[in-house]
Amino acid sequence: MKLRACLASLLLAASTMMAVEIDAETFLKSLDGAKVLKGRAMEYELSGASYRTYQPEVSPSPDGGLFVSLRIDHMRGFLASDDHASLEVTISPDGAIVAAQSSIALQGITISSDLIKGTAAASTTVTTPYVDRAVKIGTDLVADLSSKLLREKIVEPGRVSFPAAIRHNYNLLFQSVKKAEVTVRPADAPKPVAAPEVKPFQPNQPAVPPKK
User: Would the pTM count as exceeding 0.70?
Assistant: First the structure.
């Protein structure tokens, strides 16, 4: 009886668990530019070219981690159409970047990287875990994009430096990954249903003849 009571109390008690999240506001501020589009994007300059990064789109993954999608524009001026890039990052439940992929859309040309996955080994640095894995993924991602961009003989400065701008956003996105405590409360226990009233069995009584 005591064991059942202990189990019931454990099930009903609120539990605390760690969850991973993206601090989107801190990420945009770290780009150190001018906010546009009602604060949902940031415009900034890198290597003499102008870029615009939008607020990350974040969705939870089935394993408890996150899938983050980021849009980056290369702003080419009033007389030319902008170039566009996407950066997709998969983050594990413990805050490690496990995979990344990116694509660049120029005028009539689309360049997509391979899906870059990290190894299972984490960094040995206690204060900054998973840094080695994140650095390796970012390095391989930019190398893959740059080599494919070179094959297309792209020479425009802002376009040539587009992979570096993607890496810049990747690094800042990694720094905006936060862990937060989440309180998980159990669902309300169902209310007990009252048992129907059972009346004692009474045999049929003979009919009483009416009085004359």
Answer: yes
